[in-house]
Structure formats: C-alpha cells, structure tokens
Design the sequence.
C-alpha cells in the first residue's frame, strides 16, 4: 500500500488536507467532489500577483481596467513590476506576495499576472491552511498549471484556467471576436455562470459522451509534476492539455508520460487544446501528426476525444473551471463541453 | 543487490542497434573498426543505417524486434546503442526482459538510452553502461573511449574532473 493510500484510509472523509507547509502529504481521495470557492459579486476584490515570470505595472493595466469595468476592485501585489532576471521578484518575494493573497480574506480571487516559469520553485513553501478554510479562485494557466494541479490533487478546490494579465489587449473593442469571448468568459466563470463551450468538429475526434471533473493544463508542466506531491489524478475525470513551442517528438514523449503514469487509462474524456508545434529543427520528419501521437496512445480506450479545443497559448483561450464537473459530448457534427452539477 | 553482467573478453560479440533515432551507417565505420581492433566481434543490426524516411531508425516494431533479438541472443555479450535521439520510451513496455534477466549483458549508451538505464536499474536491478555511442568513435581515441573500453572489460576506472568553486566537498559511497 502506498503511503498516501494508507493515510487516506485512516483519515476520515472530509479531512482532505493536513501538513501542507511541508508539501509532503497527499491525503485527498480522487473522487471527493471539489469545493467551489464562492463566486464573485460586484465590488469583490481580486488580487494580481506574479508567481512566475515578471510583468511591468504598465502591462497589467488593461487587465486592471477590465476587472474594474466588470465591477470588481483590484489589489496589485508587491511582485507586479518587480524583476529578478526572468522572475517577478525573488522566490521569497513571490512566495510572500502569493501567501499574503491566499491569507487575506478580503481578496476573493487571485489572478496570476503571467506565466513563464517559477510556480514550482515556491509551491512547496506555500501554506494553504487559510486557503483551505476559506477557498478563493486562483486564476491563470501555463506555468500556473502547477497551482491547478497541486490544489486539485491536495485540496480538491476548484480553480480557474484562463488567460492572464499579459493576454488582455489594451483595446478590447478592436480585438478579434474569439479573443473578446475568451476574456469575457473569465468574468462569466467568476460570477458563477454555468459554462457551455462548443468548438469545430475534427474528423480525428472520437465520438462519445463523458461526464467528470475537468482537470488539466499545460502538458509540459503536468509532465514535470509527475511523481511529485502536485501530480494530478485523472481517474474518472475529463482531462484537457495544451502546449506551445514543443517539437513533435517532445509532445510524443509527454503523451507517453501520461500513458505510462496511467493518466489516460480511466478518463471520462480527453480534450486536446491548442498545440503550437516547433518546426524549426534540423531533425528528420517525425512521421506522425499530433493527432497520430494522441490517438495511438488510446486505441483501447472508448472515451470521447476532441481536437483543437480553444484552450492554450493563443488568442482563443476560453476560461475553464478546473475541478468542476463537466459533460463532454463529441458527435460527428458537434463538440460541446457543458458545466453540470 | 544489483547484478553485474559478465565483463567482455576478447572474441566476444557486441551487437549494435538503434532503438531510437536514425543513424547514418557511415558514422558507425570507425566505431566498428575500433571495437574490432579491441578484439571484439561486431554484429550490426538492420536498424543501423536503415532506409527509414523519418526521425526514427525504423518502425517501433523493427526497433523493438531488433533490440529484443539482441537481448535474447546468448552469443551477444553486450548491446551498444548506435545513437540516442528519441524513441526508447515508445518500446520500453513491450520489451521482454526474461531472457536478459537470466543472462544479463551490458547495455551501452546515453541520452535517450537513459530510459533503459533507469528501467534496468529500478525494475531488473542489473547494471548498465552509460557511455559514448557510435558517432563518438569518430572523434579519435581519447580518454572517453578509453573509459568505455575499460568499463566493458571490467577494468576498474578512477575518474577525475576539474574542481569547481561551488562544488560541495564531501565523501560518499553509493
């Protein structure tokens, strides 16, 4: 019996967390429904901070204006405008800023200013005690997948996978419709609207209907979390993945990681988001497409699969409630993802 | 306890296979000649310099079958991977190690071949050799090839490298 299984068996249901400071214990049963943080109302405060890469004060302004436009107040964290090489401040500064926002009960949601790299350097030092007692929305994607995965696995609290400050255009009125819709979907999620997404059909999709908790994020980040305390459990869930600037061989290796760690075995659905493939390599033709790479891993699985879902490093990147139950319906003529009870 | 495969003697056969990326046959010429000069027989697999038109040295099945055959062939005393690249992770779970476990032999390579080193170490508890592969022999005789030779014939090697100001000074065994 694995240590975590043993611990789960002696801890009553509901006691889904304990010594989180050390980042060592995983006491959560995979099937415990997520706790949904309170949805936001007019006047609620959203904190913005850098857990990973740096951003200038100027570059967060479009997001600040939009959040205020939606009726929220904004608190800009100490790390915004800080720069420690690639990072938005030193590890200690980013840790303190995020910790403060987790603990401040006036802050109802924390928007990661941008991704880049850095969350994993501080995640084990974060103390989630206050957060677990008083959940709030943690918002972001890409490098912030560390937070989605860690929070889902250890605390079963829903989080919001969405665009961050650096993706808010300065003038939204001139933005492309998909980009506007992606930004607006953040507000819809935060105020508790039941979400419903559709996307174009691909002839590589596998038809079917599946219902389960939505989990996922950036594929490379999920791969690097394998075997750690933040490793995601995908059993009985709908998994979505996206990535950018990766070679096909590297994407293949990451999908082998998902397969070999059992993460593709017991899904209720698989959503392949945007994959921007790096082609400037002098290596030979890989000989397989993204679709080949995915489908050859799951020939024995019968859950629905869809490609080109609007999530990832692109303008069309809708907000998704991680940890919340959704229904994925893939037919020959349509693809829908619907939030359910 | 980890099991150490028998070290090689003169006249032993070394198989060369490419379980991952494609390797141009011309790049293996010096490697083969050097191994022969050291007194070994060399058996070159079909995945070396194959007619593959893509990244890999052959289909998953071709790479698997050749590695499997070399693992099972008792006349082959060591398997040198021609090249890394990417590909062992695609076939590792389909390899049957039962014969190899009874008659361990040295598996040699690095980079993508780390998949084999890890798997052999954790699942089979059999030692393997992290070493330069075929193309490295084109660099001429050097301390790296010398260490390769020493390792396969069982000569204990002492390694040293330049000191670094940030090294942490300790002694340990493992």
Sequence:
């Amino acid at each position: 019996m694995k240590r975590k299984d043993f611990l789960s068996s002696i801890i009553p249901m509901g006691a889904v967390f304990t010594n989180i400071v050390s980042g060592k214990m995983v006491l959560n049963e995979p099937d415990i429904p997520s706790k949904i943080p309170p949805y936001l109302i007019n006047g609620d405060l959203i904190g913005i901070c850098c857990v990973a890469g740096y951003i200038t004060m100027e570059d967060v302004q479009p997001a600040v204006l939009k959040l205020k436009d939606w009726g929220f107040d904004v608190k800009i964290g100490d790390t915004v405008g800080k720069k420690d090489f690639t990072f938005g401040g030193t590890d200690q500064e980013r840790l303190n800023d995020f910790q403060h926002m987790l603990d401040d009960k006036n802050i109802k949601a924390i928007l990661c200013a941008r991704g880049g790299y850095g969350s994993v350097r501080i995640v084990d030092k974060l103390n989630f005690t206050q957060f677990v007692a008083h959940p709030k929305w943690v918002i972001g994607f890409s490098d912030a997948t560390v937070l989605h995965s860690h929070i889902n696995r250890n605390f079963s609290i829903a989080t919001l996978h969405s665009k961050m400050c650096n993706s808010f255009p300065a003038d939204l009125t001139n933005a492309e419709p998909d980009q506007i819709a992606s930004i607006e979907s953040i507000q819809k999620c935060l105020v508790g609207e039941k979400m419903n997404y559709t996307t174009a059909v691909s002839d590589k999709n596998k038809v079917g209907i599946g219902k389960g908790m939505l989990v996922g994020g950036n594929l490379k980040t999920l791969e690097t979390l394998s075997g750690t305390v933040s490793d995601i459990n995908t059993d009985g869930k709908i998994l979505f993945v996206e990535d950018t600037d990766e070679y096909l061989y590297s994407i293949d290796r990451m999908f082998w990681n998902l397969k070999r760690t059992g993460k593709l075995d017991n899904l209720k659905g698989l959503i392949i988001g945007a994959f921007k493939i790096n082609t400037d390599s002098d290596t030979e033709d890989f000989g397989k497409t993204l679709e080949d790479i995915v489908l050859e891993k799951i020939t024995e699985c019968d859950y629905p699969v869809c490609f080109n879902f609007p999530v990832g490093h692109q303008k069309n990147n809708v907000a998704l409630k991680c940890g919340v139950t959704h229904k994925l319906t893939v037919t020959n003529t349509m693809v829908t993802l619907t939030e359910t009870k | 306890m980890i099991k150490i495969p028998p070290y090689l003697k003169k006249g032993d056969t070394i198989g060369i296979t490419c379980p991952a990326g494609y390797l141009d046959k011309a790049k293996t010429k010096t490697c083969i000649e050097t191994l022969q000069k050291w007194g070994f027989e060399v058996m070159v697999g079909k995945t070396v310099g194959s007619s593959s038109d893509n990244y890999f040295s052959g289909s998953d099945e071709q790479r698997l079958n050749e590695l499997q055959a070399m693992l099972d062939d008792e006349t082959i005393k060591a398997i040198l991977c021609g090249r890394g690249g990417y590909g062992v992770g695609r076939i590792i779970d389909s390899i049957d190690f039962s014969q190899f476990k009874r008659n361990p032999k040295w598996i040699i390579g690095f980079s993508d071949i780390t998949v084999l080193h890890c798997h052999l170490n954790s699942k089979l508890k059999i030692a393997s050799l992290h070493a330069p592969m075929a193309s490295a022999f084109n660099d001429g005789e050097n301390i790296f090839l010398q260490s390769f030779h020493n390792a396969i014939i069982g000569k204990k090697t002492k390694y040293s490298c330049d000191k670094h100001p940030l090294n942490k000074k300790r002694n340990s065994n493992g």
About this structure: Chain B has one domain: 13-153.
